[in-house]
Amino acid sequence: MDRHTTAAAADDTPGAGGPRSAATRRAILDAARATFAARGYEQTTIRAVAAQAGIDPSMVMRYFGSKAGLFAAAATVDLPVPDLTSVPVRRRGEALVRHVVQRWEGSLGDDSLVLLLRTAVTNDEVAAQLQNQMNQLVIEPVAALGDPHASRRGALIGTQLLGLALCRYILRLEPLSSLPVETLVGSIAPTIQRYLTERVED
Amino acid sequence: MDRHTTAAAADDTPGAGGPRSAATRRAILDAARATFAARGYEQTTIRAVAAQAGIDPSMVMRYFGSKAGLFAAAATVDLPVPDLTSVPVRRRGEALVRHVVQRWEGSLGDDSLVLLLRTAVTNDEVAAQLQNQMNQLVIEPVAALGDPHASRRGALIGTQLLGLALCRYILRLEPLSSLPVETLVGSIAPTIQRYLTERVED
Q1: What is the predicted ipTM?
Q2: Which of A26, A59, A119, A135 is most exposed, with minimal Cβ within 10 Å?
């Protein structure tokens, strides 16, 4: 299942069709990710992104409408949503942890979840986007299992997974940052498993 | 406390002690917490804090040395360190969660842990301070139980507790922010309990 949400809606803009516009769009997004990551959301300007992409600022506005629109597109997590229905019940916690940790252990220079998280703590609009991401990545897969308490389970899972992301990839707290991935997965999987399966009083 | 006695305050010297210098110090810290919380670390200036406190900027420098020094003093968490040795083993996870959540559920406008966390995600010096706080609040109490794996257990506990703080008090993600405290404690305590007691392979 693949929900890449950076759909090229801007390609419908008059005069902006074809492969050239897709390349421009990609160049703007690459420049935006680099600039947002280096300067943070508040200090990033459309002008700086345009300069980095080697195009005119008006083009950035034409494609993305605003800085918030540009950030939304740049920070959209392209993590495929896990399909828990195909995983045996008792291994779902581990599957979910492994899914996100493997993504995060990759190259983090342009990691969009880290960018999103770092910005969300100081900007309410961006925090709302992170809420959407959590819904897509965690709450919807749990809801897809037919669980009536999906949203509460997903919220608890979110505290553990975002806390892990925060401590290991952003704050780089020790000894957490040095723990082997398998140790982390082994310790955190039972937490997620319990949030997925614990009895909930109505 | 009168915060506009600039001339009188200028007579204070750090280390001279006495009620007047203590009052000045407190006035600066109150102003610093309010200003850091409102503007964030990067946008806060010594000058702005001094103006808020009604004293000369040179006094702030005299008392705290630098903006980083001022932040360190302002954001120091005055949460008492939990004494886990007096808690029965099987209730320690719950005790630790309850201890921090009860603190966080208080008035958050000037909450120093929230301020510290928000700043730490974008500033390495402040992240190092948060590491110290985590050591004091979580790793040392666990180490005081004589556990040779205290630092690893504390690190895992930190991911869950900071993730909770992040999602509930900073990002205010739903439905997490609306869950009753007892529900939260009931769900998260077993996680902390397991991190405190799970078998660790050497």
Answers
A1: 0.75
A2: A26
